[in-house]
Amino acid sequence: MWLGTLIAMAVVGAAMAEEGEWVKVTEDERSIKLETDRLEAVVPKENPKHWMTGIEKGSFLDKATGFREAGDGLMVIDWLMEAGSDEAWSEKVIAPDGHGVGRYTWFTNETDPQRRHYALMAHGSSHRKRMIEGPQLCHRMKPVQPEVIRGKDFIAVTTTYRYEYAAPGRKAGSRWTQRVVFPKGERFFVLMDKIESVNDSPEMFLRGDVPGCVRHEKGDTFSEMYLSYLGGPKGVRIPASEFFTPFPPDMKFGYRRDLNKTPEHFIRAYHLRDKATGKDGPWLAGLTLEPSVVYEAWCSQRPGGIIVMIEEIHGRPVKAGESFSAAHIVGYFDTIEEMHGVYNRYKGHTVLETDAKGWRLGR
Fold this sequence. Notes:
The chain is mainly beta. It is built from four helices and 25 strands. It is globular, with a radius of gyration of 21 Å.
C-alpha cells in the first residue's frame, strides 16, 4: 500500500513537473497571467489596464520575437445589438451606473460640428444599429471570476457574464461566454464568444474587436494590413500609408455579408514593426474560423491614431432561449501562407469546448 502511494505521488509529481516545463499560471485578485512555452498573456478580472474583456492591453508577448500587440488588447467585446435606429429613445435609456447607453444614432441630431465629425468617423452613416442589452462589456463589466482548466497540453480560461439592462421592450440577462485555449507549442490561442439570448430579435449580433485595434503614428508600429476577404482570392495587402488620414467605416476596407460574397477564409492581420528600428516583425492575425458568421466588419482609421478592427458576428434571427457563437484563432505568424495553413487545419468551426481531457472545436 505504501509503495503504491509512493508510485502515485511520483506520477503526480512528474505530471506537475511536465506541466511546469511549458506553462505557468499566476492568479491574483486582479488578473490571471498565463506563460506558455511560446506566449505570455493576461486575462483581467477587475481593474484592467484598458478593457475588461479579452486579452489585456500590452500583455500578449511572442517569445520568439519579443513583439507585443500594438493596440488596446485583443478580442475585446462590446454591446449585444441589432439592426435599426434608437433615435426615438436613445437619450431616455440610462444604465444603473448613470451612463446613457443609446449612442449609435445620437449624432444625427448633433449640432456641434466637431462631435458630429468624430461620430461619423467612428460609426459611419450607412448602416443604423442599436443596443439590445448592456452594459458595454469592455467598459463597464463588473469584476468576474474566470474558470481555469489545466490539461496535459493546453491551458483554458472561461469567463461568463450576464447583461444587466436592456432597451425598451426587451429583457436583461442574456449570457456571454468567452473561452480562451492556449495549446502547448503554438504561437496562437483559440477563442470562442457565445451568446445565450433571453430576447427575440430579427437580426441580433455581438460586436467585438478581431483581433484588436492598432495604435500608431504614421505607421510606426505596423507596416501593412492584410484582409483575406477583400481584393480577390488572395486577399489584399494595404500599406500603412492608407491609414495616415482618418476615414469612416463605410468608406473603404469594409465588409458586409449582405453586400459581399462569403469568402473562403476570414483573416485580418497587421504586420508589426519595431518602432525603434523600423524593421518588420511577425504578423498578428485574427482568424474567424467560419466566414459565414461575420455580419459586418471594418478596418477604419479614427481620429487620434487608432485603427478600429470591429467585427460583428451572427446578425440573424434569434428567439429567446437560442444561442449563437463564433470561434477564432489569434496569434503570431511569420507569413500569410502560414496563416492560411492554420486556417485550413481548423476552418468551419463555431464552438469551442474544454474539459480536463482536452479541448475541441465543433459546429
